[in-house]
Write a structure and sequence with these properties.
single chain; about 400 residues; alpha/beta; Rossmann fold; 2 domains; 10-stranded mixed β-sheet
Length: about 400
């Protein structure tokens, strides 16, 4: 239990996966003093003594479900009593009226969103301490497929709004600049059956600050935690100082993947290499851009979590069992990816839920379930790896 005078932050780990890792590493680099906390610990009063709760990206709906009413109520009590809530992307979505209700804002209806935008975008910022040291006329930040907010004029303060895409913006599996200059969006949106044009986001709120009871809430769809983003890192540092949170110098842990770790990561690395050499995804700055209808983000998330776990001395029956299960998952995933590649080659329109091939449908159901927000064998393996990783991070830092 932390002391009542602590200015430390609690970091909600559950249902974050890839996004939790990005934030974890970013916060350590900027020397924020924080402790990882689970949903069970929050339900049992674990926020007592902390000054802030940091919630990274991920599916907001899954976070809310994981917390349950007891966990959600504990967070509301924490903030209303004077705590700080800092939410990034999915963590920001969790703060909306459809989630914890910390901010009186809604999500824009899906038909009005452009849901597939990721990469470096141009942003309009309003004067605020979190932008200290940045250049407003060159405000470039990363977003990664965010939901979008609807804020009333009388609502909380908007600190940043979306302006436009850049040459480093992707929208679904297209480059924004190339389409903008050569094709336009109308026919592509018709073919894909989704909104693609980033202009639909123009003026949309990206960073919002408000109050809940005695507490303060900062909700950001900007991923300040994007690897290699110096401007984003500077803003995270400003956020730390703005809320008066404590510093801590973390020791650097360099971990070599050997032995059992190689057996753990090998089957997931095979998936990533398979998808890239079959033109199903490719690097997009810090992350990946994948073909429409392929579960690229899911494979990437599993790879990053397992890769981090493999850096520890992963010996024991639970790790051996996970390695065997990942091998089976890898084999079936590569079959699915090849079938999806062939379907795309035939000109078939794939979505996460639509495919003509019965075998594709069978494998998708087994591996990913029916939910867009993760399911099936993938979610079970991801949860297992993530739970083991949380344990290791707490033990070794």
């Amino acid at each position: 239990m932390e002391s009542s005078s602590s200015k430390r932050a609690a970091f909600l780990w559950d249902e974050s996966f890839l996004w939790g890792l990005l934030s974890y590493k970013a916060l350590k680099k900027l020397s924020l003093d924080f402790a990882l906390i689970s949903r069970d610990e929050i339900r049992d009063g674990g926020l007592s003594g902390f000054s802030a709760l940091y919630v990274p990206g991920g599916w907001a709906s899954n976070k809310l479900k994981a917390l349950g009413e007891a966990g959600a109520g504990a967070i509301r009590d924490f903030v209303s009593s004077g705590g700080v809530y800092i939410g990034i992307c999915g963590g920001a979505g969790l703060a909306t009226s459809a989630g914890l209700g910390l901010l009186p804002i809604e999500r824009r209806p899906l038909k009005e969103r452009a849901p597939s935008i990721g990469g470096l975008v141009r942003v309009e910022v309003n004067p605020h301490p979190i932008w200290k040291g940045t250049k407003p006329e060159r405000a470039l930040f990363h977003i990664w497929w965010p939901s979008q907010f609807a804020v009333k004029d009388s609502g909380p303060e908007v600190l940043a709004r979306f302006l436009e895409g850049t040459e480093k913006t992707g929208t679904s599996d297209f480059n924004f600049k190339d389409v903008q200059e050569l094709l336009g969006w109308q026919s592509l949106e018709s073919d894909y059956g989704i909104n693609l044009d980033p202009a639909r986001m123009k003026g949309a709120p990206l960073v919002i600050e408000g109050r809940y009871g005695k507490g303060r809430v900062l909700a950001s769809l900007i991923h300040f935690d994007t690897p290699g983003d110096k401007t984003g890192a500077a803003c995270l540092e400003n956020i730390r100082d703005y809320f008066g949170l404590e510093r801590k110098e973390w020791r650097e842990n360099k971990r070599a993947v050997t032995g059992a770790g190689k057996k753990l990561i090998s089957p997931v690395r095979e998936i990533m290499e398979f998808g890239e050499r079959n033109f199903l995804w490719h690097p997009n700055g810090a992350l990946t851009r994948w073909r429409r209808g392929v579960r690229g983000l899911e494979y990437l998330g599993l790879y990053e979590v397992v890769k981090e776990l493999a850096g520890f001395a992963v010996k024991g029956p639970e790790y051996a069992a996970l390695a065997e299960e990942l091998s089976v998952f890898s084999k079936k995933s590569k079959e699915l990816l090849m079938l999806e590649r062939m379907a795309l080659q035939r000109g078939e329109r794939l979505t996460f839920s639509n495919a003509l091939s019965p075998r594709i449908q069978e494998l998708r159901l087994e591996l990913f379930g029916r939910a867009k927000s993760h399911g099936g064998e993938f979610k079970r393996l991801l949860d297992t790896a993530d739970g083991l990783l949380l344990k290791r991070l707490r033990e070794c830092g």
